[in-house]
Amino acid sequence: MTSIFFPGKLMMSLLTMLVCACALSACSSASGTSGASNTAKKPEWIPLFNGKDINDWMVKIHHHEVGENFGNTFRVEDSIIKIRYDQYGDFNEQYGHLYYKQPYSHYHLKFEYRFVGKWCTTAPGYTILNSGVMFHSQDPRTMPKEQDWPISVEMQLLAGLGDGQPRPTGNMCSPGTNVVYKGRLEPQHCLESSSQTYEGEQWVHGELIVLGDSLITHIINGDTVLQYSKPQIGGGVVNRYDPAIKIDGKLLTEGYIALQSEGQPIDFRRIELLDLSGNKRGVPVKRP
Which region is the signal sequence (predicted)? Predict the structure, then answer.
């Protein structure tokens, strides 16, 4: 093999060029990796309420057809969804719900609420300073006109009655459903959370982490206050439903999110959702 001799200066020049080339290659590779990382899709919070109207929501009120917002129960003012009864007269068990337009399965929901004004005196007494956020709910379009409550799970919202007695919020209620709590199918309609009592017309921050038919977590003002699992159709409370919908024992893997009206004025704002459905992150599940 013939050997090749490079003068010292030329050798140094070639080495310098080689080092520079390697450095440029490394920079280019790092830049490409960074660029790919920067362009990777990150989970984003989806605003369910646009602060202007409820066009993305559906109304269903007991004794009324889907879409009839009786008495202007659900209205938007000052970037707030307000639930009011000033046009009601007799409440007449006109329990209502405002449903977001599409179902979800795995997600993290956050919202703020506050109780305001005077309770509708013709509503049942238990509804004083009482409302809720329903989830894993049946499609309101599958509810007969005279069905009172949707088959769903409820994150119940309560406020203190000013009597010095504890009244936690972020509880669980189960209209037409059951859940597993502490390893057993819970026989009670409602489960009390560990939250503190909130008095007056203050804003309270609520969060709900729903993992399909697995773990459900309730959070109030940053504190985890209740956990349970295996939400499923069953139990009572719901009346005059379509029997084809109420299949007792069927696990609930997805459903609609709804804000409740049952006689107490309440405000909701900053309603956002982070989709946790794996590869479908940011994309709602398809309707059944």
Answer: 1-36
Total of domains in the chain:
1
In a domain, residue 27? The reply is no
Q: 98, 99, 74, 68: which is closest to 86 by C-alpha?
A: 74
Q: Is residue 214 part of a domain?
A: yes
Residue 6 falls inside a structural domain: no
Cβ neighbors of 94 (< 8 A, separation 6 or more) are 61, 62, 63, 64, 70, 71, 73, 88
Task: Tell me the CA end-to-end span of the chain in Å, nearest whole number.
Answer: 75
Residue pLDDT tens, the chain, 288 long: 433 333 443 333 433 343 334 343 443 444 444 444 455 567 799 999 999 999 999 999 999 999 999 999 999 999 999 999 999 999 999 999 999 999 999 999 999 999 999 999 999 999 999 999 999 999 999 999 999 999 999 999 999 999 999 999 999 999 999 999 999 999 999 999 999 999 999 999 999 999 999 999 999 999 999 999 999 999 999 999 999 999 999 999 999 999 999 999 999 999 999 999 974 443 444 433
